[in-house]
Every structure is written in C-alpha cells, then in structure tokens.
Design a protein that fits this description.
The protein is 68% helix and 0% strand. It is an all-alpha fold and 381 residues long. It is globular and about 60 Å long.
C-alpha cells in the first residue's frame, strides 16, 4: 500500500511592503520656506539673545521688516502640517520596527552633531552667550530635556519634543495595528476630540500627551494625506476643515499680543490666520497635485538641508551675526543674508558628511531582525 501524496501547504504571504510614493519635490521646497520663516523670526523678528548679537534691538536693525519677521514663528505650524502629511505617507504599510528605524535614523545623526557643535562653540571663551552645563548637555542627547526640565542646548528642540509625541501616538494607534483609511480617520477624529476635552479638563498629563495646541496641525496634515490618496474623500476634507478652524484659533490665541504694550512686534489676528491658512493651502495644493510642475531636482537638495539648517541656525546664527555685524561692520541686511547662507552651507556639510553616511546605516541596524525573530529560531510545530 503506497503512502498518500504529501500535501503542500503554501507559505503564508509576507506583509505587504509599503507602496513607494513618488517624490513630492514641492513639499521639499515648502519645508525650506518654513525653515527660512523661522530663521527670519530668530534673526529679526524677536528680542532676547539676538539683541546681544546685533548690539541693539532687531527693531532698529530692520525698522520695517521686523514686523513681518515676527510672523516667521508660524513656520513651526507649517512644519507640523507638513509632518502630519509626511508621517502618514511614510508610515502607511510599515511595520512598527521599520517605522521606528526610519524616524530615529532621520532625526538623530544631525541632532547629535548639532548638540555637540553648539555646546562646543558656546564653550569658547570668546563666545559670550550662555552655555548649558556638561550634565545638561548630555541629557540633551536623549531629546527628553524638555519634559525633564533640563536647560536646552538648542532653542528649537521644543518642536522636536512635539514631533516625538506625535510619532508615538501615530505609531501606537495607526502603524502598530496597520494603517488603513478607516483607522486613520478614527485616529484623527479621536485625537481632535480628545484634545478638545483635554483643553477643557485642565489636566497637565493629558496636555503633555495630547498637545491640544498643536494637534490640529498634525491632524490637518494627516487629513491632507488622505486627500492625496483620494481627493473626493469627504471625511478627509472634513478633518482638514476642522483642523484649520481649531488650529487658527490656537495660533491667534497664543501669538496675538495686541494687549501687550512691551511686545517686540504687534502681530494682527488676520496676519496670523493668513499664515496658518498659507500652510494648509500650500500642503493641500501639493496633495492635489497642483504643484507637480515644481519638480526641479534642486528642491530635493533644499529639503535635505532643511532639518540640519533648522537645528543649528538659531544659536550658531547669533555667533555669526555678532562677528559679521559687530566685528566686521557689515550692514544689517548683508549680515542677515550672509548668516542664512553660512547656515545653509553648514547644513549642507552636515547632510553630506553625517546624515548621508550614518542615516542608512542606523536605519539598517535598527530595522534588522533580532535573533529571536528569525525563522530558524522559531519552534517547529
């Protein structure tokens, strides 16, 4: 009697790899615009340490433009909308490990170098700006200095703390169970509602986790990615509309300083709403494909420079401004442009010699399967 033929069991299908998205070069250009807005604010739209760099208030250095530079702080809100779009796009179809590896390798190499550079420069005897203690500088390497109440090496790092919390929420609620249109819609609606409840509840812990002031911008960007996938999705458009309505409210509430007679510059509520609207409309135009014509290769380079430029431009910019304006006596507008150019050059060097070699290696190391998860180590059924 012959043995019955063996039954071949087909292998289980692997989890689908993320669908590659075409490069949205216009989004890279918008990133750089947002970074330059923030640089304009830090160099000519506020008081504080930059006054020491110029030798007098930026109001005197830029009698007319300082009012417009003051709106540059809203570049952060534009960044958050872009981030919502990009994180949803990059997290769609990824495993949690792959998502974590992608985000960590993108943020950390340039960030660590920026911490070292600023700490080293501010420790020089000729630099009169206050340096943080060595202990606090080491804590800054973790990106957790904000919740720990430690002095910050980089003034802009508070935005990274907001980004990290967004990544964590998106990873746990969307990436881990698997991204889908329905799950992303529930994520957006749930976050907006929970953030509104948090605002009314006045609970510090919930404020830290749900970020009511910034949630509408991240959620708006996520909604715009849904629009990018399907421009007829009425739920996605509803998420975008609600996010804009709430986001402009928070921006006006926190930045409209008409009642402060000592304010550096008096922003108007209309001006604040206009800049917030610009951020949403610009990302919407990209999502709808209206800016596909802006497909120049140099925009990819601009996008690559944005993050390192954003990290180093403020504190190292003060040092450059002081040297150019007070030591070399270069006029204000020339100093402003040369400082931006110098920071962009430094950003290019950071990208070329740190990010490009280290980012793929870190991504590969973090995304590599652990020995316990390899097929050979699994018990035989």
């Amino acid at each position: 009697m012959t043995a019955p033929p063996a039954i071949e069991v087909p292998p289980l299908p692997e989890r689908a790899k993320p669908r590659p998205e075409p490069r949205l070069r216009a989004l890279d250009g918008l990133r750089l615009i947002a970074a330059l807005m923030v640089a304009g604010y830090h160099y000519g739209g506020r008081g504080g340490d930059v006054t020491k760099a110029w030798g007098s208030s930026a109001q005197h250095q830029f009698p007319t433009l300082h009012t417009y530079f003051a709106y540059g702080c809203l570049g952060v809100q534009v960044f958050f909308v872009i981030s919502g779009f990009v994180i949803c796009m990059s997290g769609w179809g990824r495993t949690l490990k792959s998502f974590f590896a992608s985000r960590a390798s993108r943020l950390l190499p340039a960030y660590w170098l920026a911490i070292v550079l600023v700490t080293a420069v501010f420790a020089l005897p000729a630099v009169t700006f206050k340096a943080v203690s060595p202990s606090d500088a080491l804590v800054n390497l973790t990106m957790l200095q904000q919740p720990l109440g430690v002095d910050r090496v980089l003034g802009v790092c508070w935005t990274l703390w907001a980004e990290i919390r967004f990544y964590a929420l998106f990873a746990l609620l969307v990436v881990l169970p698997g991204a889908s249109r329905r799950r992303v819609i529930f994520f957006c609606a749930g976050w907006i509602l929970a953030a509104a409840i948090t605002q009314g509840a006045h609970q510090p812990l919930l404020d830290i986790v749900l970020m009511p002031e910034y949630a509408p911008f991240f959620v708006g960007g996520v909604g715009l990615y849904l629009v990018h996938r399907d421009r007829s999705d009425v739920y996605a458009w509803g998420i975008v509309a609600v996010s804009w309505l709430i986001g402009q409210h928070y921006a006006v509430r926190s930045l409209w300083n008409a009642a402060d007679p000592h304010a550096f510059a008096h922003r108007t509520s209309f001006g604040i709403m206009l800049v917030v609207t610009f951020g949403f409309v610009a990302v919407a135009a990209i999502a709808l494909g209206w800016l596909h014509w802006a497909n120049w290769r140099w925009l990819t380079v601009a996008g690559a420079l944005t993050y390192p430029f954003y990290l180093v431009h403020e504190h190292l910019g003060w040092v450059v401004i002081k040297v150019l304006h007070r030591s070399l006596h270069i006029p204000s507008y020339g100093t402003f442009l040369l400082t931006v150019a110098f920071m962009l050059l430094l950003a290019w060097l950071m990208n070329r010699y740190v990010e490009k070699p280290l980012t793929p290696r870190m991504r590969a190391a973090l995304g590599k399967a652990t020995p316990n998860s390899s097929p050979a180590s699994q018990p035989t059924p």
